[in-house]
Records
---
Amino acid sequence: MTSEADASEGSTAEKVEVRGIVEKDILDEMKTSYLNYSMSVIVGRALPDARDGLKPVHRRILHSMNESGMVHGKPYKKSARIVGDVLGKYHPHGDSAVYDALVRMAQPFSLRYPLVDGQGNFGSVDGDSAAAMRYTESRTARFAMEMLEDIDKDTVDMLDNYDGSLKEPSVLPSRAPNLLINGSSGIAVGMATNMPPHNLNEVVDGVVEYMGDPSIDTLALMKHVKAPDFPTGGIVYGTLGVYEAYDTGRGKVTIRAKAEIEEKEGEKNRIVVTEIPYMVNKSNMLQKIAELVKAKVFEGISDIRDESDKDGLRVVFELKRDAIPEVVLNQLYKHSDLQTTFGIINLAIVDGQPKVLNLSEIIGCFVDHRRDVVRRRTEFDLNKAKERLHLVQGLIIALDNIDEVVKLIRGSRDADSAREGLQESFELSELQAKAILDMRLQKLTSLEGDNVRNEGEELKATISDLQGILDSKERLDGIIVDELLELKEKYGDERRTDIEENAEEIDLEDLIMERDILVTITNTGYIKRIDLDTYKTQNRGGKGLRGMGFKEEDWVVDMFVCSTHDYILFFTSRGRVFWLKGYSLPSGSRHSRGKPIINLLPNLDDDEEVRAHIKITDFDVDKYLMFATRKGTVKRTSLESYSRPRSTGIKAILLNDGDELIGTSLCDDTDEVVLATAGGMANRFRVADVRAMGRNATGVRGMRLKDKNDLVVSMAVIPGSDQQAEENGDEDEMEEAQNDDSPVDPESGGPILLSITENGFGKRAYAYNYRLTKRGSAGVINIHRDYIEETGKVVRVLVERPDSEVLLISQNGMVIRTSCDCIRLVNRAGKGVIVMRLEEKDKVMGVALVDKLEGEDDACDMEEGDGVPGAKEKGDTSEEAADTGPGK
């Protein structure tokens, strides 16, 4: 028995191998198959492309109609013929799916700007279905031709159809931002899209505004794209949901029917509805209202009449004599489909992946697509013009040498020998020689010869113009804008859907919830905001949350909590200041990098950099801003002078030629300022020594530079340091510190200045060691000139914060992070210690103070007498590295 069983198993195995059967776990197979099916539905059927706003079936219908000549201006064709062409050529699915998509594109109550011009019964707002496809006729609408324009100029990629026999477009060139103006809806596997239609005039204005300023925020865009504009009219009630949808990609918009109360003396009052919410079935709505009247939910209604006709919709609600019309209307809004909610989900396919998009991102996808289309179209026209010019130049050569050409051709045995003879005799290409042989005799006339030469000159001008478009982003964008404005002129119309504010929604900014957010800024200039609720409070011993994942050369240089209504002021090297509200900063997750600050600030010059940022809750008249420039100029201006924001920025300080802003900081009369130069000098003086001046002033001398090649590299503000020392009774000790190069006794406390040089040296010294001088003086020695050659020039001087760490990055991208406590306290003129060991010719490029990570221990690995940190990178343990100054 055993041998028989073994033999049976062996034969089975042989059969399995021969038949090519592969054993698989059914659970794994179901998972894989369902995932493949899901992605096929998401990408290939249910969701629109962000570029042309079409699903594959709609795109295939329009392309097939265009190919077959069923276009605007030509006779209508049976819808059944169109459906058959689409099924046979591009869309191998059910005919009902294709016809339903065709019908919806022809319904003026479904699409704001219909793409199909239908003849026959294509359904109604009452929910009546369209007639069978054998009875209706169709052709593309005039507007749809704008979607197909230039498709024959290699403007989009063409893909194989389902059987590889034909080519179909992966996307339409689409001059119109169809995704916004017509919207879309669809249900995929595990996700859905529901995008409302908009008014073409508003969308075009929004796109043009975006192209002028890609960093434009949602509120600014909403000055143009105010709210959805539905083909059935109605009222958008309240704009909070609109803002949320435009800002995040998801939101709920309340839509009300447009109703009027008619009051006549001696007669019953009535409510007349002339427009209903989008996608509401009128017949079903009236039936449900009638049932509610019978159920005495609406006790004030005596009769309901549908008086709609070919001139428009009209529904009349007759009221009882004792009924209050306003109360009944509010009841209708509350309990019937006269008020509905449109849940916006801006989900579309971007680069082959489903993505939820805000308003700015939707416009950005369309603009990028149009730039690609116009560029490819221009390249196509340029190549055609060059090819034609090549042939024309050959014809001109032939005309200039007509006798020799005729003689050569007559003396040739056949066409091939004539072509070869022309190529050799006149150095022509094969194409030029063929064109000469194909030239008609009428070209030999004087007039035709002049026409050929004129054509050559026109082609050269055309080629120059087309090349200029490809070489200039401004010209290319200008063409896109001109085409959009042309669309607006041809198809633009007034809004159909009114916008009505809630009593509580007077100012849109007031609708934005005031909540705390966490703002992070990296050394490479990326910024983002995170809701503070993301970081939940944890008990001691918790693991915490993973922060954002950066590239190796990125780190957070500033992190602060502010309100969504707070201002963030950004100061640039050119002396300009820009404002951003907290809510206008890009929202991100804990793991995202955010967006570059320079992309959020309009009109920045190429070499203009953001040098400082300050959070402002209110523009306090008692607060000031202190500015410092490379050449030692300082300026103090009341914070109130910057209380009138402008999105394009304003002048913060007037700079002299060749000068630039290096730092800006908040201060008051009790503070002190330290200016530090690259050559190792530092000047400490009182803020009160700098008189307050206007916003457009240049400022006054803050520090005299002894060396004409020296520059101020850093400004640090010390909060009320000398007053604090006096209050602590340390006047004698402070005076001694100001007149002696020895360090202050550590027990006296006080602010500490941290200096970092380009060769990786660092030092800490009490601020009181730097003698308090007057504004405009040369200051005192920060790093002795004897050490500058070894340490390199000063890069940054900072006021140390408790429990802070210092981050250094070099030109070669090396990064080190170490606790400030690991850097020895030395006297004012000391050299300091090596903080970062650099490779040859490498220099420290950036320095930042960051808060110590929670739960992180200091690990300096410092030996006795050594001042070299080893917390994150092993330092130098040599005696020279621990040198503390000339008096050692």
---
Amino acid sequence: MRSKLNLQADGTFHISAVTDLSHTYFPLCNTKAMKSAISPTLGGDATADQNSFLLLPTTVADLSHSLLKRNVYFRINDTFTWSITGLTAVQILTPDTVDLHGDFLVHRLERKHALFTCTIESFVPRNDTDQELHKITIKNTTDKPLKLKSVIGIPIYGRSADNIRDHRHVTSLLNRVKIVENGIINHPSFSFDERGHVINRRHYGVFAHSSHHKTVEHYYPTVDMFMGEGRTMLDPIVVKENIPSPYRCGDVVAGHEAMAGMAYAPVTLKQDEDLSLVLSLGIADAEKVLSDTASTLDAHTFDALKAKTRNIWKEELSTLRFGFADKTLNGWLKWVTLQPILRRIYGNSFLPYHDYGRGGKGWRDLWQDLLALILMDPANVRDMLLNNFKGIRIDGSNATIIGDAPGVFIADRNNIARIWMDHGSWPLLTTKLYLDQSGDLDLLLERVSYFQDQFTHYTKQVDETYKPGANILKTKDNKPYHGTVFEHLLIQNLVPYYNVGAHNNIRLEDADWNDGLDMATDKGESVAFTAFYGQNLITLAQLLKRLHASGVLSLALFEEIAPLLRDVSQDDIPGKKTLLETFFQGVAANVSGKQIHYDTLDLSGILAQKGSALLEHVRTSEWLEENEDGWFNGYYDNDAKPLDDVKKKDMTLSGQVFAIMGGAATDTQIAAIIKSADRYLYKAAVGGYRLNTDFKEVKTNMGRLFGFAYGHKENGAMFSHMALMYANALYKRGFVEAGYKVIASIYAQCMNLETSKMYPGIPEYFDPEGRGMYPYLTGSASWMILTMVTEVFGIKGDLGLPVFEPKLILKQFGAETELSIDTMIADRQVRVTYKNPSRLTYGEYEIKAVCIDGDPVSFSKTDYGVKLHKKITGTAVDIVLDRKNRTP
């Protein structure tokens, strides 16, 4: 492979011979609605939503195989055809040299031919349009004249992704393709999709501007006309032959597959002369909007919008900048920082590897993406949190699909409700980070509504009396019920405590974080998330103590919650189930609206006892040990048998992560887990720690993941998300070298272009050959940022007061004695610099002094660092690290 990656500290990168890589693509988007992807051969789709695809919906396989791309052809000297996609007969036999330059978010390709060079720049403007812009510049690099005939040939798909197989031909009969000056617009009469047959409002257009022509000479508005009978897009007839078009501006062609086919009159370029074409691909609800956005289209406008777009993206990413000694690492982390933003735009859909996606965002994604936003752009987070809590049902379950507008929730796709038993755990994790960063305890007392639909009893029953409406829980007198944010958090973490299986762990339901564990609904249990919920209950108990200290002596909760707050023995499984059923019956259709006031300290004690009981249960009942091997059982299958087996050497990573993170694991147990994980799960060639060992069977009593080939996706891949949570857990517990190994392994694999074959950033996972899969849209990016900021650099909060607990090792300093990070602390942009004059590593140093804008400030010691006594009012924090004082 000839491809080489050169990544700069600011995140810009260059990949030589990029077409030697398969399955690669680059995101192009804005925050309005436009979502695109572009490959080195100009493949990839462009859409505003699931039902409004401008270009053909594209899976990763289509990037290489499909000829329906953003095609621009040049007929050179009347002898051969050349395309910016590289897909003509001449280019297949003698490939161009192709280099990629990546920026935020501008994609630039450089193609070199013996007679000329061609640069293709592409981006989506950061403005209020659904538009892609491309500039193609072809330059004569010889000392002889170069004759060019320029032809644009971009198929306009113009409908729902569902129509790929559902009414593909029939929906082409709806097309109304209109020719306008220097452009072609398709306005289908109807939209056929899951919404039914509705009048279509969408217009899909392609406009062009040439530096050497005033207007297009010929228009070819249909695919068949453009290609010619018996031909393909490798060698379209209108490029090879001079075929006049009968169509003129104002004509409408109906009932065919639409093509933005536009040909210019031939021109001749002198030595070093170039010709540029600027293209606008757009979606709008009115023809005039498309025409207006293209009316000023030229190279000058393109360059101005490109500069503006690049600056907006860079400004958005400027709130978090890492200053490691490894400059390449800093550049790589810029792309990781971008990824949570991309997830908010794309959800888990609309990029070529995410061909399963239909739009929307999952519940877990909603909360985990906010982890990064709290650290990068906290200003609007409070309102987002409040809106998100409206997706919780009164029975502790939640809507699983989130709509495009704030506060819009759906039970699930096709209205099939399922329970991912981990869903209730994430809101508290995110909310606690927000509280620590901001000190905004009042958020817990804000009142918000509950989500309601026909599903009750943790979605196991249906309320036949439910009438579809506003999806807001009502009281018995038909008034909307609002509970505090704390009440919402309490319900989501208390209900699982009672929802246990035969081994007294929380029931797996339809899956937990690992969606592939979806076939153990009856008897499956998740030990992993039993630990997580245990820690959450303790966290809620601690928050109640802080509320009490702030003057909140009691908390009002809806009266039907009473069964969940009764004293029940941890080992009384039937008793737990009885109380849970009593609770479910009480909230099946509505609530009374009456509330009971609970003493905050009494309530804290109840929750702390329940949380500690869960952790102690995991610590003692689920620990597996043989000789030097030791780890936790993570799950029980649908035959009520443990999934992990220390004798068979069957091990799951998630079973260890949450036991460590939640505090169930002792330090001795963690040390044993690290050794076992290194022995059975670690593989450097795939980027580090795999999700599980090879169970060597299709476990239909556990989940679909065991049907995947081992080493792929959830069955034993190095799954970045869980690996980074493992790193985070290790750092949290002070096992810094082990945590560093996780992150260093992932980074090294990502940067090894020879095997990862991906652009900078984190993929969802690495396959058995080490290729990065499903890039850009992965929750692991938020966990990388969270871990780097709060654990590696140790910049945290304690209900608004700054905490510094650095866990930097000497390798990360390189040859330097200082490392810095630019980040948000509360609502201030701050540069934190750690000064390490004695070049000590973690474990050898402690914080000796803290200065803000040059002035020393007081602090108190914490377990791993220091806490300031006041909020930061300056912009520069200098922290001196020096050798720990010896204990007398």
